């Protein structure tokens, strides 16, 4: 389908706006993936708040120019499927990693987080980042641990006194 100049400007502006708000970007090559599989991938992306878009390479290069994803410009070779994680930095990486397990023809080309370009082999590193809920749970457990230990220590003092008094009582009872 031929795009006129206005359509191209609209695509670039839309992708640029999304890239400005996104936490991470994963680029993949989806050649050979069936339409049914792509439909399932798009549905999963919507559920996880991942912006998924196939964009021409020249338009993608222009769209990421003024963002932290400018480092990915050299990765736009061949067909490119862009996935921007909007809430969770590892969401797009987890989505593509799981999808690649089911589809041999699906290939992750590059990823970027915080202005740093990572190779496709680093997808596990990005996919293993905890979700927001998991991170908050870890933070809560780390913050709660010292308080829990302090309470246990305070509770141990009366328990020790009780055990000592019981031992003295038993000793006097045996002596009598």
Please tell me about this protein's structure:
A hairpin with a 2-residue loop joins strand 4 and strand 5. The chain is elongated. Helices cover 56% and strands 15% of the residues. The model has no long low-confidence stretch (mean pLDDT 83). It has two domains: 125 residues, Ribosomal protein L10, N-terminal RNA-binding domain (Alpha-Beta Plaits), CATH 3.30.70.1730; 45 residues. Helix 1 crosses helix 3. It has a five-stranded antiparallel beta sheet with strand order 2-3-1-4-5, with helices on both faces. It has 176 residues and is an alpha+beta fold. The longest helix has 44 residues.
Any descriptors?
single chain; 176 residues; alpha+beta; Alpha-Beta Plaits; five-stranded antiparallel β-sheet; 6 helices; RNA-binding; structural constituent of ribosome; ribosomal protein
Tell me briefly what this model is.
This is Large ribosomal subunit protein uL10. The chain has 176 residues and is an alpha+beta fold. Helix content is 56%, strand content 15%.
Number of domains: 2
- CATH architecture descriptor of the largest domain: 2-Layer Sandwich
Estimate what percentage of residues fall within beta strands. Answer: 15-25%
Total beta-strand segments: 5
Helix content: 55-70%
